[in-house]
Amino acid sequence: PEEFVAEIDSVTLEMVNTAAASYLDPAKVKMTTLGPYESADPFDKCLDS
User: SUPFAM superfamilies, from UniProt (predicted)?
Assistant: First the structure.
């Protein structure tokens, strides 16, 4: 329905960031990788963020 699409289109980046900040705790974010990696170097940027 058009009303549903209009509601989705009305969502702003600020609204998404506010919701993310209230639900996501950066201290609790975890990352898992799987593969034949010889080192974590390719992932250092993600791990340090």
Answer: LuxS/MPP-like metallohydrolase
